[in-house]
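Hi R.,

As promised on Friday, here is the backbone we talked about, encoded as structure tokens. Could you run it through your design pipeline when you get a chance and send me back a sequence?
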């Protein structure tokens, strides 16, 4: 099969394609985060309780995580361009449905659609990065994707709040849904799956794709990437999407304005830390998993210091803890870079789907675990949690950090043994600081 190169790799066209795909990812993050400033309005509009309100976020993430493996299979068969388009269509329909929803069941269905469309976007963008950029460029571009994608969360804060005040519920969310139509045109006109005449998309039966999933899962590098994503991402996701605001306001005694400001400021720290982590990953490819574990260690220590205070912790300490936690976002992106080193490009969608499920699965379990513990230890009116309740409940995170660290260490050892056996010389190349990417010789199991 021809692999004639017809476009330059890592040059102007690659950056243009990436920018369009990045815009789709920013929109996906915006849709994912859009309920953050609309929670009180949603409670009034649908007449729902706090637990029902939380169901919106949990269901959306559950759909997102549950679709990662099927999406990975579809991505390897149909390519990034088609999945970006399908994701945009589904997200646009979901947000438009949310704009006009007048009952709780309809609104829940709309948020589930948003989760389904969102599930197709990020792994599609990462696949484009892998095929359109040089090996030395890919780690930094991957970090930039994760960092700049958080602009969607910023847009879901102040701008959406202003739109809700000016246009009302239907107008604001209806306007947000229309952005997807514009991006559909941009994807059709500008995005191409590969710089080669043969686009690298494997046109085989879905049954064969599903069977090959076992081989991708059997590769220890895939699971190393998944557990790296698992251990580093969940704390930030749980904090920003559900429990951070009540922890700061009810537990630490911050004002709502101060808590909201910190949540927005974390996006800036994600960008700063991501640049540093991206440079370290590119410079020390053999030690990528150690970089992840170091960040998780700092995160866990600072959380422990905050939770040991039987009174509200000093604001500077809470900010330091939050910044360490925000560094987990860029650290989780290292999981995709790890999987790339072990995976041929024609099965990268499956590998990235498995990696991406790690952090979101951990987030769902942690969100639920914190909620259960809060209910067990709290003996006051619903929702009136205090510092003592949060000091116990937030310790749930340590169970998942512990599990993740053990698994990262386990699969790092297995991954290095796999490379030494199957690709002699790869480890020495990375030890010298040179990037190494899978030569694409075929699927590999253990």
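Update: got your reply. Pasting your designed sequence below so it's all in one thread:
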């Amino acid at each position: 099969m021809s692999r004639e190169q017809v476009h330059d790799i890592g040059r102007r066209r690659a950056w243009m394609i990436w920018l369009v795909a990045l815009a789709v990812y920013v929109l996906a993050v915006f849709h994912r985060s859009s309920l953050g400033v609309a929670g009180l309005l949603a409670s009034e509009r649908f007449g729902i309780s706090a637990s029902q309100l939380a169901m919106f976020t949990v269901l959306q993430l559950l759909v997102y995580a549950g679709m990662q493996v099927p999406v990975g299979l579809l991505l390897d068969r149909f390519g990034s361009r088609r999945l970006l388009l399908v994701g945009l269509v589904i997200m646009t329909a979901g947000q438009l449905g949310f704009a006009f929803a007048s009952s709780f069941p309809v609104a829940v269905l709309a948020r589930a659609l948003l989760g389904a469309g969102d599930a197709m976007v990020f792994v599609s963008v990462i696949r484009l990065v892998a095929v359109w950029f040089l090996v030395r460029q890919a780690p930094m571009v991957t970090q930039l994707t994760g960092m700049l994608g958080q602009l969607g969360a910023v847009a879901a804060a102040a701008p959406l709040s202003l739109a809700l005040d000016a246009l009302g519920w239907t107008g604001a969310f209806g306007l947000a849904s229309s952005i997807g139509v514009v991006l559909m045109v941009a994807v059709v006109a500008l995005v191409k799956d590969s710089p080669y005449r043969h686009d690298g998309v494997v046109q085989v039966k879905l049954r064969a794709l599903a069977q090959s999933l076992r081989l991708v899962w059997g590769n220890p590098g895939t699971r190393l990437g998944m557990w790296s994503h698992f251990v580093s991402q969940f704390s930030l996701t749980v904090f920003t999407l559900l429990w951070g605001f009540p922890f700061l306001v009810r537990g630490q005694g911050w004002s709502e304005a101060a808590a909201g400001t910190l949540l927005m400021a974390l996006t800036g720290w994600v960008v700063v830390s991501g640049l540093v982590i991206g440079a370290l990953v590119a410079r020390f490819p053999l030690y990528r998993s150690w970089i992840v574990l170091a960040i998780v260690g700092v995160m866990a220590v600072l959380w422990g210091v905050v939770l040991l205070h039987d009174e509200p912790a000093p604001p500077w300490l809470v900010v330091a803890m939050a910044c360490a936690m925000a560094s987990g976002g860029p650290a989780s992106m290292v999981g995709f870079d790890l999987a790339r080193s072990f995976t041929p490009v024609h099965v990268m969608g499956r590998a990235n789907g498995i990696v991406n499920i790690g952090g979101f699965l951990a987030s769902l379990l942690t969100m639920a675990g914190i909620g259960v513990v809060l209910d067990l230890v709290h003996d006051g009116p619903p929702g009136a949690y205090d510092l003592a309740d949060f000091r116990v409940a937030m310790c749930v995170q340590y169970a998942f950090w512990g599990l993740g660290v053990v698994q990262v260490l386990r699969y790092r050892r297995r991954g290095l043994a796999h490379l030494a056996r199957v690709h002699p010389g790869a480890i020495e190349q990375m030890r010298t600081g040179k990037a190494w990417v899978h030569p694409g010789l075929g699927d590999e199991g253990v």
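One thing I noticed while checking it: The CA atoms of residues 220 and 414 lie 6 Å apart.

Thanks again,
M.
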